């Protein structure tokens, strides 16, 4: 199969990664984490939290938008996480 066709094939859930960029004491971050944990558990997708206060690059890029959700390293959403939208992004 040519590389062009493989690139358009959806990644298997185990090959996906959701990153939640957050900070301590942020209630929106806590709400976002509940959604990320649920969707990722349902779909078998790995996820990781990143603390914006411990990463200067993340701080400079996202400090006005937290929480930020990245899907496979690309920004998916910020502030509020919509469960259905995240589920669809991970299923495509």
TrEMBL record:
Q: Which Gene3D superfamilies match?
A: Glutaredoxin (3.40.30.10)
In terms of Pfam families, this protein maps to: Glrx-like
Tell me which stretches of the chain form a coiled coil: none
- The highest taxon in the source lineage is Bacteria
What's the protein here called? Answer: Redoxin
């Amino acid at each position: 199969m040519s590389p062009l066709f493989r690139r358009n094939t959806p990644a298997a859930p185990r090959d996906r990664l959701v990153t939640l960029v957050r900070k301590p004491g942020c209630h929106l971050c806590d709400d976002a984490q509940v959604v990320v944990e649920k969707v990722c558990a349902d779909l078998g997708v790995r996820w990781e939290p990143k603390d914006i206060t411990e990463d200067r690059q993340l701080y400079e890029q996202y400090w006005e938008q937290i929480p930020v959700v990245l899907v496979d390293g690309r920004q998916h959403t910020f502030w509020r996480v919509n469960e259905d939208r995240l589920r669809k992004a991970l299923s495509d």
